[in-house]
């Protein structure tokens, strides 16, 4: 007897063919078929016939006349058909769980993490959704419209550029979720809905004029606080970003090949904006003559350049520094032009002065910390003159003096 006879008999009897025996033609045909295709047994299933409670195996490719519907009814044991059939349960994917995994992988700074958490919390509060798999384009638009009608703590409307920035956070989060097989969607719900600004509604940051720069530098001499005394001078003559300045330590002001410089290197407590931000900036003669190096010598070894400035709630030194400098320039010196940035306008001025001193694009990029050869085939290759002060000092020496009124 074939090893498939017993499975064939069992299969026939379960289907209602109680008269099936080893010698019956029906059993022999089924046994031979099972032997030919061993996978058939796993595929055999009971099913309804014309809506009645009669069953038979779904035996593919077998003679229909050998397997007519049985003449009696068989009770279904495996499931209760009187109960409604339910769909497979949905597995939610919490938005905040995706965010946590995303931030862990990317290792964002604390300030950047808090910003992303704020954006996600606001989205969940507005849409009343926390399951990313249920978020639709309509939810994204609802969030955008609600945010556009929200007032800031100053009573002003949230700006379109703020909404655009927050949208990029959500869009990148969804893209990351899809790439990591946490989400599945045809189109990112946050794509293509950024609010458009009218051209000319936001004025770009402009550099200080020569008159404004001289006024600020002269008045800084009256400040007893080291930060307000020296920050304007260092920013004016080095083009440093405020965050770069705030994380400088005494040892970063040094001498390389007989040139007084600021050696800007990324450290654990002083992240730089980009790899190209690492650079060596020669000190201008006005900064040395003003006594900046004497101040640096007075600091303890390892001290921050301005130890009196404390970190803000995001543990960022540049936060409170920006507030101090902004209040002094806008409120005390009454330079309140909204197109001026109290700190960053110095950087704009420095780049203009470097260009007017005859710097090539590569030298200008090296001094400002921009990518070498941006926009060209050389982009991202080499470090240029970023760490060659004997090359960049030639331009620093040709720069005009702000304190002497040489810059208009």
In words, what does this structure look like?
The chain is mostly helical and 408 residues long. The protein folds into three domains: 62 residues, no CATH class; 85 residues; 189 residues, hpI Integrase, Chain A. About 7% of the residues have low confidence. One of its GO terms (biological process) is DNA recombination.
Write the layout of secondary structure elements.
Layout: H1 5-14, H2 25-36, H3 40-43, H4 95-106, H5 110-127, H6 137-148, H7 160-179, H8 210-220, H9 226-238, H10 242-246, E1 253-256, E2 259-264, E3 279-282, H11 285-289, H12 292-298, H13 317-332, H14 344-356, H15 361-368, H16 389-398
Antiparallel strand pairs: 1-2, 2-3
Helix pairs in contact: 1-2, 4-5, 5-6, 8-9, 9-13, 9-14, 14-15
Topology pattern, helix = H, strand = E: HHHHHHHHHHEEEHHHHHH
- Total number of beta strands: 3
In percent, how helical is the residue content? 40-55%
Helical stretch tally: 16
Strand content: under 5%
CATH architecture of the largest domain: Orthogonal Bundle
Q: Which class of the largest domain in CATH terms?
A: Mainly Alpha
Domain unit count: 3
Shape: elongated
The CATH superfamily of the largest domain is identified as Intergrase catalytic core
Mean pLDDT level: 82
**Largest sheet strand order:** 1-2-3
The Rg value, from CA coordinates, equals 37 Å
Output the CATH topology of the largest domain: hpI Integrase, Chain A
